[in-house]
């Protein structure tokens, strides 16, 4: 098999909503297709990927550097011994000439290519991605013998145990909504949470200001008025809590919330540790850390508690499956369970990774009319869970509005 072309399009996905840190009106995302010289079942064999949300499209880095680097590689550098595309070997090619550290937007560009390569590999093997991941890298439950992500897939396969099941997995998910908008109707937030419950979600996350305790108390009350128990309501501060803000802490302690998300700036581990000292309930963070080194520093210095807190690193924004797997293994060595990993928005691709590695839950943008919202057509959320379907690869072909976007690519 030979890769013959890779195309990226940076798509507008903006909407008039804000969190405590940024507005989304100018937001973009990358759609990517890897084309090959093969067909499978009469259809062209392609690998597809769609961006995670919130960090803008990756077109410049992809077109100027990473796509040319992959296209220039010898096919033998990209395949395993069976002729399947090998994402770990491909990422090694992508990272040639790249200095350590820094990270910036680079991990998202590499992670997007990694996601499309995994879609391609799973289709070559005729497997849903979650099963391909398990067979290629081993289930996290086998971590005592799990391979280093530096090894190639064929080496890793030898570690896969018979414990890996082929039953369609059921995963937990939660709805992320409740952004700030210009809608002055105080019922709007309540209605949005109620819509999530009607869609089948049982845990819902809303945005808070992190700086206006009175406003945040009102928003929590509005969300709870939809009929959601406080223990199933999460709140996201997007890094805006200020050290010493006792009023803010009191609002957060008033109800037994599911978790408080990203209370402090992503890289200020001392500030996070101070927050954790002051707030006894569950805390979740990590969506803006893109490397195993950054994640390690979070676990070393952020004051998080493995028994109750959650880690939200984003798979596709973090160089892809290999780096994410390394984070899982590092965290496990520091006393964390894979169940503590609640992957940040990566949508259909991330849902497969959650299923493959037995992670705790999956973040969902609940509105299926959005390109990045909901799941595969006809796959409902029931009681806060869904069954990951058996379509080969990620199954983008079974979400019609997203496929319409891919169909615009050359
Ligand atoms: Mg967040």
Q: Count every beta strand, where a strand is a DSSP E run of 2 or more residues.
A: 12
H and E string: EEEHHHHHEHEHEHEHEHEHEHEEH
- Overall domain count: 2
The residue ranges in which pLDDT falls below 50 over 5 or more consecutive positions are: 142-164
The biggest sheet, with number of strands, parallel, antiparallel or mixed sense and barrel status, is: 9 strands, mixed
What's the Cα radius of gyration? 21 Å
Beta-strand portion reads 15-25%
Query: Helix segment count?
Result: 13
CATH topology of the largest domain: TIM Barrel
CATH class of the largest domain: Alpha Beta
Q: Round the mean pLDDT to the nearest integer and report it.
A: 92
By secondary-structure content and strand pairing, the structural class works out as alpha/beta
> What kind of oligomer do you see?
single chain
The CATH homologous superfamily of the largest domain is named Enolase-like C-terminal domain
Bound molecules: magnesium ion
Alpha carbon gap, first and last residue: 20 Å
Second rung of CATH, namely the architecture of the largest domain? Alpha-Beta Barrel
Which term fits the overall shape? globular
Write the layout of secondary structure elements.
Blueprint: E1 3-12, E2 28-40, E3 43-50, H1 59-72, H2 87-94, H3 106-125, H4 129-137, H5 153-157, E4 170-176, H6 187-198, E5 204-207, H7 213-224, E6 233-236, H8 246-253, E7 259-261, H9 269-278, E8 283-285, H10 292-301, E9 310-311, H11 321-333, E10 342-343, H12 347-357, E11 361-364, E12 385-387, H13 400-406
Parallel strand pairs: 4-5, 4-11, 5-6, 6-7, 7-8, 8-9, 10-11
Antiparallel strand pairs: 1-2, 2-3, 4-12
Helix pairs in contact: 1-3, 2-3, 3-4, 4-12, 6-7, 7-8, 10-11
Magnesium ion binds at residues 236, 261-262, 287.
């Amino acid at each position: 098999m030979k890769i013959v072309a890779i195309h990226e399009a940076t798509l507008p996905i903006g909407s008039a909503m804000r969190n405590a840190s940024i507005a989304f009106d100018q937001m973009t995302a990358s759609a990517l297709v890897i084309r090959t010289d093969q067909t499978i079942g009469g259809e062209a064999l392609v690998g597809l990927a769609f961006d995670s949300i919130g960090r803008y499209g990756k077109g410049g880095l992809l077109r100027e550097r990473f796509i040319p680097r992959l296209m220039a590689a010898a096919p033998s550098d990209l395949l395993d011994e069976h002729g399947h595309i090998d994402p770990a070997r491909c990422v090694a090619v992508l990272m040639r000439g790249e200095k350590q550290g820094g990270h910036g937007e680079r991990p998202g560009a590499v992670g997007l290519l990694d996601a499309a390569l995994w879609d391609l590999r799973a289709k070559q093997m005729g497997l849903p991605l979650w099963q391909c991941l398990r067979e290629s890298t081993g289930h996290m439950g086998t971590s005592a013998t799990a391979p280093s992500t530096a090894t190639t897939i064929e080496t890793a396969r030898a570690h896969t145990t018979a414990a890996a099941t082929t039953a369609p997995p059921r995963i937990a998910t939660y709805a992320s909504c409740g952004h700030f908008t210009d809608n002055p109707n105080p019922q709007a937030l309540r209605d949005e949470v109620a819509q999530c419950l009607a869609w089948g979600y049982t845990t819902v996350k809303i945005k808070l200001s992190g700086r206006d305790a009175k406003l945040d108390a009102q928003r929590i009350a509005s969300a709870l008025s939809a009929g959601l128990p406080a223990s199933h309501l999460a709140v996201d501060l997007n890094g805006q809590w200020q050290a010493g803000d006792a009023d803010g802490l009191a609002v957060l302690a008033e109800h037994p919330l599911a978790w408080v998300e990203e209370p402090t700036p992503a890289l200020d581990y001392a500030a996070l540790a101070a927050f954790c000292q002051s707030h006894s309930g569950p805390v979740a963070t990590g969506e803006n850390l893109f490397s195993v080194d950054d994640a390690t520093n979070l676990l070393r210095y952020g004051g998080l508690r493995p028994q109750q807190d959650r880690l939200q690193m984003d798979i596709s924004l973090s160089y892809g499956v290999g780096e994410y797997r390394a984070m899982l293994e590092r965290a496990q060595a520091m006393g964390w369970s894979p169940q503590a990993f609640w992957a940040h928005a990566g949508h259909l691709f991330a849902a497969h990774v959650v299923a493959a590695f037995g992670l705790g839950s999956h973040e969902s943008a609940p509105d299926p009319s959005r390109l990045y919202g909901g799941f595969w057509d006809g796959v409902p959320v029931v009681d806060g869970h869904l069954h990951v379907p058996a379509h080969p690869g990620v199954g983008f072909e079974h979400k019609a509005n997203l496929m319409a976007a891919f169909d615009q690519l050359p």
